Amino acid sequence: MAAVCQVTGAVPGFGHSISHSHRRTKRRFDPNVQKKTYYVPSLGRNIKLNVSAKGIKVIDARGIESVVKDLLAKGVKL
Predict the structure, then answer these.
(1) NCBIfam families this protein is in (predicted)?
(2) 64 lies in a domain?
(3) Please, how many CA atoms are within 13 Å of residue 78, restricted to the half-sphere of its CB?
């Protein structure tokens, strides 16, 4: 599963792990992406979304209908 949130667009960040001796090695900071299933009354069916923890909070605040409308306007296939 790709580490990209469908709601917020959060993608991995890149940086360094720094050891005690201050050697730097490349690392990747992945967002907390989870596969969630939501029932959308306007579509009359369940949809599965890959959403980050912040994306779940956005859905709770704005409502799934509003978020799905925005995703469909962007052209995301649900």
Answers:
(1) L28 (TIGR00009)
(2) yes
(3) 26
